[in-house]
Specification:
By secondary structure, the chain is an alpha+beta fold. It is about 55% helix and about 15% strand. Helix 20 links the parallel strand 21 and strand 22. Its main location: membrane.
Length: about 750
């Protein structure tokens, strides 16, 4: 087109017409081939109008007109293909997670061989941190600590002893162990799941383009006007003018621009959308299936509760245990170390540490003999006592892992760890319903009792547990039979077939498996479930803007077609008019690049850096909230002088750190947020909670001053414990509410 334009200005019309005709002919030839292939698949689109316009331009000698139409058509295609290439470039392939080699014992020597060379009966060494290559059984004298979360959804590691099965695709979370292969790699669990993914992909209907849904009606109107104009006037040029004006560039260009703008905004929030069809389906989702582990829950063990001897400080016991656990690769040991670091504890270097695989660790920290591990491991190293019996009853609960700590051969205390629900999970489910989800199902491979506990306080419509990958796929197909678009959200290998089968699959890939990312249509790259809601909102807005461009472009095109049919527009004039319509439609579509504006003022927004700072402030106060709970447990039996001292120390801690933090929120943060919104009392509830926290701290000081000379009475002990437990609960809930508000206001 540029060559033809230059030749025309140089006074060489024969070169310009040849250049425009050649360009049009090349695009037309390619387009006719694509149309033939599509019709063979019984697919129909607006490409036919563009082909008719280019063919008519060549036949009637309107070569510039044909070149303009060809440019607009190929530009729209290039935009769509660019979006798909950009999305797929960010992903790893399905088999990237599967190990390509394994250590096999042959003639008394370990050798690294391709996994395809493994056969049943081979002795295999699975090193720490490796993915198991084939199904097999743990050999005699070995203990395996296996992370099965990718396959079963169970967040906490499991121990496999001699003769017990180990599945391919799981992760060795402990020390190296030996196993005997029971299947080849092609016959193992992970390969079977990969085949399920491919089968689900093959059975899944392709996503239709938004523009194609209007093709039939628009084509009928176009042909009717073009044929009518030719028949009435007897001038074929009028029919061409109608076809040129009718060339659906607003649909071919504006729709991809709006959709790609939405894809770009999603990427800015850490959500990778694989193309326009996925974004459109994301906007229309009506049924949502959610996996549990790593999706609704965090997917990692976190410190939930602690109980220690009355003469010991729980924070100090945690520091000693975490100091010893620094040398362990066990997932629970790492969780305990992470909990200590979250509380700002300075860990010491252990010495003479010795780990029993899957059981516990012993060693010395600052001259103290420390043992950290499960009940059997630690109880065998301490004498039985009333406190040990109390601890044994305290740790006997489902869904938790207990870590016991002995100091100098005496039981010091225990910690409970569990896979915690994501703090944003409740608001995400609420926003999903506001975004149009009519049915939300919890579908997990985890145990039924754990799923039921979770569903008891989450607003879901149905709970399905202990599911295999095949079960999840069947549930997706059953939900699709209702006629409503189905979204599946998961993160593990076991979710991959269901993600591939769903109308729209969403993978949590921050710590998830590559298989789920490859099988999904949408990949959340950050460890934030609330980004799913952000992506849906962006998709709905982009879809709405695309529809506006469609309606406006088609309306203007029909008006121009009528003018062309009546002889008021020549083909070139029609092409220029179509360009003007394109500009209007594309400018409207580009609005999808920016966020929505609410009235004259934007919603109050927090920069991402500010959000991270506020969340870090809450993490820095974890030790203060923990100390409220520990003090409540200790004051039940402390003697009078120690009772007074600990309450006084807690009072200083609360006033210097907790109340100071709440005062800064009231005086600095909340006014800034209220000043940028049309609802100045939106944070009144948070300020009211600050008042309640201050009231309880003041009440605690008043009760401390009212203590008698002989120490607290039983009634005073009870009242102070009750006050402290209430203060802890209110503070934890308040922090969770603030975090939800801050994330809701996050910018970008």
């Amino acid at each position: 087109m540029l060559t033809g334009g230059a030749a025309w200005f140089a006074g060489r019309p024969e070169i310009s017409t040849a250049a425009w005709a050649a360009g049009t002919a090349v695009v037309l030839t390619s387009l006719i081939t694509e149309i033939a292939i599509s019709l063979g698949k019984r697919e129909f689109g607006l490409d036919i109008i563009a082909a008719l316009a280019m063919a008519g331009a060549l036949l009637l000698g309107e070569y510039l007109t044909g070149s303009i139409v060809a440019l607009m058509f190929t530009g729209g295609q290039a935009l769509e293909e660019f979006a798909q290439r950009r999305a797929r470039r960010e992903l790893t392939a399905l088999l990237d997670r599967a190990p390509s080699t394994a250590m096999r014992l042959a003639e008394g020597q370990w050798e690294e061989v391709p996994v395809g060379a493994l056969t049943a009966g081979n002795c295999i060494l699975v090193r720490a941190g490796e993915v198991v290559a084939v199904d097999g059984n743990v050999e005699d004298g070995n203990v395996a600590v296996i992370d099965e979360s990718a396959l079963t959804g169970e967040a906490l590691p499991v121990r496999r002893r001699s003769g017990e099965p180990v599945l391919s695709g799981t992760l060795n979370a402990g020390d190296a162990f030996q196993m005997t292969a029971s299947h080849t790699a092609a016959e193992s669990t992970y390969a079977a799941i990969a085949r399920l993914v491919e089968a689900a992909r093959a059975a899944k209907a392709p996503m239709a383009r938004l523009a194609d849904r209007y093709a039939l009606v628009f084509l009928a109107i176009t042909l009717l006007l073009a044929g009518g104009a030719w028949a009435v006037s007897g001038e074929a040029i009028r029919a061409l003018a109608v076809l040129v004006v009718a060339t659906p560039c607003p649909l071919i260009l504006a729709v991809p621009v709006a959709i790609i703008s939405g894809v770009s905004r999603c990427a800015g929030k850490g959500v990778l959308v694989k193309g326009g069809g996925a974004l459109e389906m994301l906007a229309n989702t009506k049924t949502v299936l959610l996996d549990k582990t790593g999706t609704i829950t965090d997917g990692r063990a976190g410190l939930i509760d602690a109980r220690c001897r009355g003469d010991l400080d729980p924070i100090e016991v945690l520091r000693l245990a975490a100091s010893l656990d620094q040398g362990s690769h066990h997932v629970i040991a790492r969780a305990l170390v992470a909990a200590a670091r979250e509380r700002g504890l300075e860990l010491s270097t252990p010495s003479a540490s010795r780990e029993t695989a899957g059981a516990g660790v012993t060693g010395y920290v600052e001259g103290h003999e420390i043992a950290v591990g499960g009940w059997d491991f630690v109880s065998a190293r301490v004498e039985a006592s009333g406190f040990s019996r109390e601890i044994r009853e305290w740790i006997a609960r489902d869904g938790f892992v207990a870590v016991l700590v002995a100091v100098d051969r005496s039981l010091a205390g225990a910690f409970l760890l569990a896979d915690e629900i994501r703090p944003e999970a409740g608001s995400v489910l609420r926003h999903l319903r506001e975004a149009g989800a009519r049915r939300i199902v919890l579908a997990t491979g985890d145990r039924a009792e754990m799923a039921e506990i979770l569903a008891s306080f989450l607003q879901v419509d149905s709970v399905m547990a202990e599911l295999t990958p095949e079960d999840k796929t069947r549930i997706v197909e059953a939900e699709k039979a209702s006629g409503r678009p189905v979204m599946m959200v998961g993160d593990g290998v076991n979710d991959a077939p269901a993600l591939a089968a769903a109308d729209i699959g969403v993978a949590m890939s921050a710590r998830g498996a590559a298989a789920s990312s490859e099988a999904a249509d949408v990949v959340i790259l950050v460890d934030r479930l609330d980004r799913l809601v952000s992506a849906i909102r962006i998709a709905r807005r982009s879809h709405r803007i695309a529809l506006q461009s469609v309606y406006a472009g088609m309306g203007l095109s029909i008006a121009g077609m009528i003018a062309a049919a009546l002889g008021y527009l020549a083909p070139v004039q029609g092409a220029l008019l179509q360009e003007l319509i394109d500009v209007v439609a594309i400018l409207n579509a580009l609005r999808a690049l920016a966020g929505p504006v609410h009235g004259w003022r934007k919603r109050p927004r927090l920069p991402h850096a500010e959000l991270l700072r506020l969340e870090e402030e809450h993490r820095d106060l974890i030790d203060v909230v923990d100390e409220i709970r520990h003090t409540a447990e200790r004051v039940g039996h402390l003697p009078g002088p120690e009772f007074r001292r600990q309450l006084a120390d807690l009072d200083v801690l609360l006033r210097q750190r907790l109340l100071q933090h709440e005062r800064q929120d009231d005086e600095e943060l909340y006014p800034k947020l209220r000043g940028s919104t049309d609802t100045p009392d939106a944070l009144a509830g948070m300020s009211r909670t600050h008042m309640e926290i201050r009231r309880r701290v003041h009440s605690l000081a008043s009760l401390r001053k009212a203590l008698g000379e002989d120490g607290p009475s039983p009634a005073q002990r009870y009242e102070i414990q009750r006050l402290l437990h209430g203060l802890e609960a209110i503070t934890r809930l308040h922090f969770a509410q603030e975090q939800e508000i801050y994330r809701m206001l996050e910018d970008g």
